[in-house]
Design a protein that fits this description.
The complex is a heterodimer of chains A (314) and B (537). Chain A is an all-alpha fold and 314 residues long. Chain A contains 14 helices and no strands. In chain A, helix 1 packs antiparallel against helix 13 and helix 6 crosses helix 8. The radius of gyration of chain A is 24 Å and the shape is globular. The mean pLDDT of chain A is 82. In chain B, strands 1, 12, 13, 14, 17, 18, 19, 20 and 21 form a 9-stranded mixed β-sheet that branches. A 4-stranded mixed β-sheet of chain B has the order 2-11-10-9, with helices on one face. A 4-stranded antiparallel β-sheet of chain B has the order 5-6-8-7. In chain B, helix 11 runs antiparallel to helix 13 and helix 17 packs antiparallel against helix 18. Chain B is 29% helix and 24% strand. Classes of the chains: A mainly alpha (314), B alpha+beta (537). Chains A and B meet through helix 2, helix 3, helix 7, helix 11 and helix 12 of A and helix 4, strand 11, helix 7 and helix 15 of B.
C-alpha cells in the first residue's frame, strides 16, 4: 500500500511544482544584462527542461528508484542527498529538544488544569499557552534577541557557534552550542505548548469521567494514586499518536524561525529551493518527508497496539 | 560579468561622505599592523566558489577576495592592472595585449602564467560549462598566449565593453583542466591568486578566509575574514549592534534613526555614497496610451521625485535623470529635467486630448477614463512605497493608477516578458562601463530580452553601436551625452532616483579612505591597532 501512495504523492508534487511559473534557468539568466537567450537554452537542455513534463517525471522516477535524488539545480550542483544530510542533524536536534521541552511542560500543565478544572491555575495557564500560540514566533524571537541578546548581553543573538569555537576545549564547545540553542529552542517550544497542553487536558478530563476511575475512587484509593496511576496512563496513550505524527515534523523545520536565528536547517533549504525552482531538491525533500510520514504513521499504529491491549483485541 | 557588477554595486561607489570620522588614538595609531578578524554577514549561503559558475552576491564577495582578474577598477573608477602589469590596445582597436606579472603564484604554490588566462577564456566559452557569463567572451575571435607572460585577444569588430570583461577571475588551469567543472572540489574550496586564501566552509554557517602571505601586492593587514550566513536582515542588524559583525550595509531607516544612538556611534563609523543603481517607472511603449510622448511627459511632471527620495529613502539618495549615476564621467547633467509641476502636467494631458469633461475628477477622452496599472515585484518595500506615492500624485492630476505587486518569477514570466503590463517600477544596477546596448537597442526587444518597454529610436541605436566601437573616453562622452539627451526627451522611463550605499564599519578598523569607488577598493590596507584588536587568534 505504501509504494503506490508514495508514487501518487510524488506525481502530484512534481506536477504542482512545474505549474509554478518560472524555471531554474530563469533565476540564473533573467534580467541579467550579460546573458543571452542562447545561453538560457543551453542551460535548459542541460537540465532536460526542454523535454515534455511526463518524460521529465519518468527520468526523475527512474533515478529515484535507484535511491539517487540527482544533483541540485543550484549553482553548486551538489547531490541533493548530500545537501539534505548536511542540514538534517541540526534540524532534528532542535526539534527533538523542542518536543522534549513541550512534553516536559505540557503534560504537567495539562494534568493540573484537568484536575483543577476552572481554577485560577487552569485559567492562567490557558491564557499563557494561548499567548504562545497566538504570538508570531518571529516577533517573539526578535524581541528576545533585542532584549536578552543586545541589551543585556545574556545570550548570543544568532547562529550556532561563536567565532572562536574552533579554539575552545570540547567542554566549552558543548556549552557554547547549548548557549546558542537556548533561545531558539525556547521560541520554538513556546509556540507548540498550547496544542499539546490543551490536548493533554481534554484527554485527562475524558479519562477522569470513565467508570474505572469511579471504581478506583470507590475502592478508596488516594486521589494521588487515582490520578497518576490509573488516569494518567490512559490519558497518555493518544500522545503516542501525536509523537508518531511529529516524525516528519522532525525534519521539517521552519523557514521563518531558521531564517531569524540564522540556523542552517531544512526549512530554509526547502524554501530557498522553491524560490530557485530547484526541482530535484524540492522533490528530494518532499519524498523524504512523505516516506517519514508514512513510516511515522505505521510506527504509531504499531506502538499503539503494543501499549493498549484494547486495540490489540479489537 | 554580473558578479563584477554586483561587487561594484555593493562596494565601489562614488561621492563619499564620511560621517563621524574616527579620531585615531594617540600612540599606536601611526603604523598599520597585521592581525585581527573582520566579520561580515551575507543573506544567503554562497552557491559556488568557482566564479565561472556563480552568480550570487555572497559567492561574488568571497570570490573577489580569493581570485584576481587581469585588470580592475581603481579608486577613481579607471581601469588599472591587477594580474596584468600593463596592456596595449592595437591601432585598429581590435586586439588587446596583456603583459602579466611574473611574481604571482597560486595559493597551492604553482606559478601563474598566461596558460591560466587562456584556459579561463576557454572555460567561459565552453558550451558544456553552465555559465551565465559567456556573452562577452563569445565576441572574441582569437585568443593566444605567445609566451608565459603575454596574453593576446583579438575581436572581430571593435568592442569597448570587452576590456572590462578581463577583470574576470582567472581560474587555475593545473587544477581544472580535463575535469568536469561542475564536479570540481574547487567549487567548495577555491584556489586562486587573490589577497585571501580559503580556509573552511561550514555549510549554512560561515566561510573563513585567511590573509595570503604570498599575495603579490603584499599580505593584507586584516588577518582573517569570516562571512557569516545570516538570512534575516533584522537579525543581522541585532548582531551588528551586539558586536557579532564588523560590517553591514544599512537600510535608510537604520542609517538615519536606528543607529543614531551614542552606543552605536561609539562602536561604528557610518559612510554614505551613491550606489550604481537607479529605480525607474517604465512605460510599455506598445500601449496606445504611452505611445503619446506628451502623456509620458505629463506623468513625469506629475511625479515629485524629491518627495519620493524623502519619503522612501529618507533623503538618502538623489533624483535620477537618466541611466547613469551622477558624478561619473559619463553622466550628463544638462539633460531636460522634469521638476514637479502639476499645472504643466495637466496642460500636457489636455494637449494630448485628456480632459475632465464630466467633472468627476478623472481625465477622460472619447468616453474612456485615464487609468493604468503599475506592476512591481514583491519583496521590495521601497518599490511598492514608491508606487503608492506616485499613485497619489497622479490622482491629483486626474489619473487613476492601480498597483499590483507580484512574486518575482511570476512577475517576469506573466507580466514583463510577454509585454503584459502598462507600467512597471523596477531598477537597474550597472557599473562604470557605460554600454547600455542590451537595455535600449531596438534589436533587444524579443521576449526575455531587456528592452521590454520596446523602446525604438534610430538615433539611439546608432549611438549605442558607436559607443561600443569607441575606446577614447572623450569621444565616448560625446556619444553617451547625446544618448542621455534623447532618453530625457523621450521619457521611455521616468527615471526616479539613485539610492545610496550606507555601510557601517566597526570603528576599530583604520585605513578606510572613501573615494569615488566607495570604501572597499582598499580593503587589503584596512588595519586594526594592536591594542584594539578584538580577536587574537
Amino acid at each position: 500500500m505504501m509504494i503506490p501512495l508514495l508514487i501518487g504523492i510524488t506525481l502530484i508534487s512534481f506536477m504542482v511544482i512545474h505549474l509554478a511559473p518560472g524555471e531554474p534557468t530563469d533565476m540564473q539568466t533573467d534580467l541579467n544584462p550579460k546573458s543571452s537567450v542562447e545561453m538560457r537554452d543551453r542551460l535548459r537542455e542541460r537540465y532536460n527542461l526542454d523535454k515534455p513534463l511526463y518524460v521529465q517525471y519518468g527520468l526523475w522516477l527512474k533515478q529515484v528508484a535507484t535511491l539517487d535524488f540527482g544533483e541540485s539545480f543550484a549553482q553548486d550542483h551538489r547531490p541533493v542527498l548530500e545537501k539534505v544530510a548536511e542540514r538534517m542533524p541540526i534540524t532534528i536536534l532542535i526539534n527533538v529538544l523542542s518536543i522534549a521541552v513541550i512534553l516536559a511542560a505540557a503534560v504537567p500543565i495539562g494534568i493540573l488544569s484537568a484536575v483543577r478544572r476552572n481554577s485560577l491555575f487552569d485559567r492562567s495557564t490557558t491564557v499563557f499557552v494561548f499567548l504562545g500560540f497566538a504570538m508570531p514566533s518571529f516577533w517573539l524571537a526578535l524581541l528576545l534577541m533585542d532584549y536578552l541578546g543586545v541589551r543585556l548581553g545574556l545570550f548570543p543573538v544568532a547562529g550556532l557557534k561563536s567565532i572562536g569555537y574552533d579554539y575552545m576545549s570540547s567542554g566549552m564547545q558543548v556549552w557554547d552550542m547549548a548557549h546558542h540553542l537556548i533561545l531558539p529552542v525556547f521560541v520554538s517550544a513556546f509556540g507548540g505548548l498550547a496544542g499539546f497542553s490543551r490536548y493533554m487536558r481534554s484527554n485527562m478530563l475524558e479519562v477522569i469521567r470513565q467508570d474505572y476511575i469511579l471504581t478506583a475512587r470507590a475502592k478508596g484509593l488516594s486521589e494521588r494514586a487515582v490520578i497518576y496511576k490509573h488516569a494518567l496512563r490512559n490519558a497518555l496513550l493518544p500522545v503516542i499518536t501525536i509523537l508518531g505524527l511529529s516524525v516528519p515534523g522532525l525534519i521539517g523545520g521552519s523557514v521563518i524561525f531558521e531564517t531569524i536565528f540564522a540556523i542552517p536547517g531544512m526549512g530554509k533549504l526547502f524554501y530557498d529551493g522553491v524560490l530557485m525552482r530547484d526541482y530535484p531538491l524540492i522533490m528530494g525533500v518532499l519524498v523524504i518527508g512523505a516516506v517519514l510520514t508514512l513510516i511515522g504513521n505505521l510506527l504509531a499504529d504499531i506502538s499503539y497496539a503494543l501499549a493498549d491491549p484494547r486495540i490489540r483485541k479489537g | 560579468m554580473r558578479y563584477l557588477l554586483i561587487c561594484i554595486l555593493l562596494f565601489m561607489t562614488v561621492a563619499c561622505e564620511q560621517q563621524e570620522a574616527v579620531i585615531p588614538a594617540e600612540g599606536d595609531a601611526a603604523k598599520p599592523v597585521h592581525g585581527d578578524t573582520f566579520i561580515e554577514a551575507s543573506i544567503g549561503e554562497p552557491n559556488n566558489l568557482l566564479p565561472v559558475l556563480a552568480s550570487d552576491s555572497a559567492s561574488s564577495d568571497i570570490n573577489g577576495k580569493v581570485y584576481s582578474g587581469l585588470i580592475r577598477y581603481d579608486k577613481n573608477l579607471q581601469l588599472e592592472g591587477e594580474l596584468a602589469e600593463s596592456w596595449e590596445i592595437s591601432e585598429d582597436n581590435l586586439s588587446f595585449t596583456f603583459h602579466l606579472r611574473k611574481d604571482v603564484v597560486w595559493h597551492d604554490g604553482a606559478p601563474f602564467t598566461s596558460a591560466d588566462v587562456l584556459f579561463t577564456y576557454q572555460l567561459y566559452i565552453n558550451p558544456d560549462v553552465p555559465t551565465s557569463y559567456a556573452e562577452d567572451f563569445l565576441q572574441v575571435a582569437k585568443a593566444e598566449a605567445p609566451d608565459p607572460y603575454t596574453f593576446r585577444v583579438t575581436y572581430e569588430k571593435p568592442y569597448a565593453p570587452a576590456l572590462e570583461s578581463w577583470g574576470t577571475s582567472i581560474h587555475p588551469k593545473h587544477l581544472l583542466e580535463g575535469k568536469e567543472i561542475t564536479k570540481s572540489p574547487l567549487s567548495r574550496s577555491p584556489i586562486g591568486t587573490g589577497p585571501y586564501k580559503f580556509v573552511k566552509w561550514d555549510a549554512g554557517e560561515k566561510v573563513v578566509l585567511l590573509a595570503n602571505p604570498d599575495y603579490f601586492e603584499g599580505q593584507p593587514y586584516l588577518h582573517r575574514i569570516v562571512y557569516r550566513v545570516i538570512p534575516d536582515t533584522s537579525t543581522q542588524f541585532l548582531e551588528l549592534q551586539s558586536g557579532g559583525l564588523d560590517y553591514m550595509g544599512l537600510t535608510p531607516i537604520q542609517y538615519s534613526t536606528q543607529t543614531d544612538t551614542p552606543a552605536f556611534k561609539r562602536k561604528f563609523n557610518k559612510y554614505r555614497y551613491l550606489s550604481f543603481s537607479y529605480t525607474y517607472l517604465g512605460y510599455n511603449l506598445t500601449k496606445p496610451l504611452f505611445q503619446d510622448k506628451r502623456v509620458r511627459h505629463a506623468i513625469s511632471y506629475a511625479i515629485n521625485k524629491q518627495e519620493l527620495i524623502d519619503g522612501v529613502l529618507l533623503g538618502l539618495g538623489q533624483a535620477a535623470t537618466g541611466p547613469y549615476k551622477p558624478d561619473t564621467w559619463v553622466y550628463n547633467a544638462k539633460v531636460k529635467r522634469y521638476d514637479y509641476n502639476p499645472e504643466l502636467s495637466r496642460s500636457l494631458f489636455a494637449e494630448a486630448g485628456w480632459v475632465d469633461s464630466n467633472n468627476d475628477g478623472v481625465l477622460d477622452k472619447d468616453g474612456k477614463k485615464l487609468a493604468f496599472t503599475i506592476v512591481t515585484n514583491q519583496g521590495n518595500d521601497l518599490r511598492s512605497k514608491t508606487a503608492e506615492i506616485i499613485q497619489r500624485r497622479l490622482k491629483e492630476v486626474g489619473v487613476i493608477v492601480e498597483i499590483r505587486v507580484v512574486e518575482w518569477a511570476t512577475f517576469l514570466k506573466e507580466f514583463i516578458f510577454p509585454g503584459n503590463f502598462d507600467a512597471t517600477i523596477l531598477g537597474w544596477s550597472g557599473g562604470p562601463e557605460p554600454d547600455q546596448y542590451n537595455i535600449w537597442h531596438s534589436s533587444k526587444t524579443a521576449p526575455r530580452e531587456l528592452n521590454f518597454v520596446k523602446f525604438n529610436n534610430q538615433e539611439v541605436d546608432e549611438l549605442l553601436e558607436a559607443g561600443r566601437r569607441t575606446f577614447d573616453q572623450e569621444e565616448r562622452k560625446l556619444i553617451y551625452d547625446r544618448f542621455q539627451e534623447i532618453l530625457a526627451e523621450e521619457q521611455p522611463y521616468t527615471f526616479l532616483y539613485v539610492g545610496e550605499a550606507l555601510p557601517a564599519v566597526a570603528n576599530r578598523v583604520r585605513g578606510i579612505e572613501p573615494s569615488p569607488a566607495g570604501i572597499s577598493y582598499n580593503f587589503n590596507y584596512w588595519w586594526v591597532a594592536k591594542s584594539e584588536q578584538k580577536y587574537t587568534r
